[in-house]
Fold:
Amino acid sequence: IGPGRAVVEFGPGDGAKAALLLGGLDAPSAYVPVDIAPEWLDGAASRVTAAHPGLPVLPVVADFTHPFALPKRLGTAPRLGFFPGSTIGNFEPEGAVAFLRRAHATLGAGSRMLLGADLVKDAAVLEAAYDDAAGVTAAFDLNLLHRLNREAGADFDVAGFRHRAIWNTTLERVEMHLVSERAQVVRLAGRSIRFAAGETIHTESSHKYRPERLAELAAAAGWRVVQRWTDPQALFSVWLLDG
Structure:
């Protein structure tokens, strides 16, 4: 990766992954967490500062799916973009290319990118992961209906829907659906929306990638693959890209 990199993390969460990464780099020059939510930035910045006292931590409040400016304090330090986890899969493929292209433009010439991506695997494994026995994903999905009721004045009977995860073999993505348990009518924005029993609302998709496909997307965005790592079961991958 090289010495003196300023690490720019797109969506830092609690900062735990960045704290680990920074500990393995050669003399990182700064850490720049980027998120639209200031409270998340505060938490990530505090965690990284505690783990790496003396390292400049420069939070940026921004929506990283749109153009934004990096702190001028970074100067000419080489940049390392950091986008771990599997968030790249939340974009449609063309959106993933657009994000990677924007990241390339933001980080600048000579930059590198450390990217995580979930890989295509057995459908049963994927569907179980997105419809977990504890019901965490189901609660997250159904919360969309609660929010529509609360914030948009809808009248969804949340108990009349159930969460379902479906592996779309053709598009190689896990689709989250809310399935209507019965025929029903919902009022939203002055309209009546009729649902047949079994009809679904497609709420979200999570794309999984084959290595050759992700390499194509990276190249389309101006990145060159330097190295790729996977776990022994080839369930997940981490990519080092060069700009």
